[in-house]
Amino acid sequence: MTGEIQHGLLVLLGVGREDDGRDVTYVAGKIRDARLFPNDAGKPMDRSVVEVGGAVLVVSQFTLYGDLRSGRRPSFDAAARPDDARSLYEDLVRELRAVPLQVATGEFQAMMHVELINDGPVTVLIDSKRQF
């Protein structure tokens, strides 16, 4: 088994061809500060993963860039090349650990079985290219 966490966030990270360090900083800040957890009084979406003492599992997921607009087979042309994606993936993990947050990872560029027990359900999209 590679990465495992208990209470926290599962981040499926897609890295695009045009992503760079600014995108990493933006995404890390959103992961760190997003108010997705209830407070002690039960008010929903009031505390961050840091505030609840949670952890983050970061899994590389280039297939988020799968584009089915043309044809029946997905195109991954917008996904970053593996070496570039690995570098930005590792930068994101490093930034999250510097918070400090407990961060577990998947195995980059490997077939994985990912299990999730979603307590919510809450799924959000953080897209650094749509920040303005």
Task: Characterise the protein shown here.
By secondary structure, this protein is of the alpha/beta class. It has one domain (8-112): D-tyrosyl-tRNA(Tyr) deacylase (D-tyrosyl-trna(Tyr) Deacylase, Chain: A, 3-Layer(bba) Sandwich), CATH 3.50.80. The protein contains two helices and three strands, in the order E-H-E-H-E. It has helices at 21-33, 82-97; strands at residues 8-13, 55-60, 102-105. Strands 1-2-3 form a three-stranded parallel beta sheet, with helices on one face. The chain is globular. It starts with 7 loop residues before the first strand and ends in a 27-residue tail after the last strand. The mean pLDDT is 93.
Written as H for each helix and E for each strand, in order along the chain, the element string is EHEHE
Number of domains: 1
Task: Look at the structure and give the CATH class.
Answer: Alpha Beta
How much strand content do the residues show? 5-15%
Strand order of the largest sheet: 1-2-3
**Shape type:** globular
Structure classification: alpha/beta
User: At the fourth CATH level, what is the homologous superfamily?
Assistant: D-tyrosyl-tRNA(Tyr) deacylase
Which oligomeric state applies?
A: single chain
Quick recap:
The chain is an alpha/beta fold and 132 residues long. It has one domain (8-112): D-tyrosyl-tRNA(Tyr) deacylase (D-tyrosyl-trna(Tyr) Deacylase, Chain: A, 3-Layer(bba) Sandwich). The protein is built from 2 helices and 3 strands; from the N terminus they run βαβαβ.
